[in-house]
Amino acid sequence: MSLLGRILNPISRLGLRSSSLQVIRNYTPGEKSDTLDKPVDIENPFVKEKQQCILCKLNIKPDYKNARLLSQFVSPFTGRVYGRHVTRLCTHKHELVKKEIVKARNAGFMPYYNKEPAFLNDPKLFNPEKPIRNHDYC
Predict the structure, then answer these.
(1) What is the mean pLDDT of residues 9-27?
(2) By CB count within 10 A, which of 31, 56, 86, 96 is most buried?
(3) Whole-structure pTM value
C-alpha cells in the first residue's frame, strides 16, 4: 500500500487488526444492547455504618442519682469530665452528662476532685488512653 493510501485510510491509521475490523463492521449504532449491560441499582457497599454513642445506642438517659454511671465519664485522678473525643458521646448526651454531674456533685452524690473508690473497678465504657485525638489529662 502506498504512503498516500495509508494516510487516507483511517482504520489502518488506528492500528486495528482484521478481527477488530469485523467487530466495527458488524456494529450498528441503532442496535439495542443486551440487558446484561444495563446498570444495576444497588446500595452503595462502601457507605460506613452510622456511629452512635453508647448512651444513644442503649437508650440510657443520664440521671444525677446514678452516680455509678456518671463516674464513668469523670477522670479518677483529677475529677474533671472527659471530653467528647475521649468518651465518644454525641453532643446532646455529653451536655446532659455534664449537667447531671454538676447536679450530682451539688446534691452530694459524687465527689468533686476524685472518683469514689468503690467505682474504680467498674467495667470501662471507653478507653481514656486511646482517645480520637490527644488530650492533656487522664
Answers:
(1) 55
(2) 86
(3) 0.61
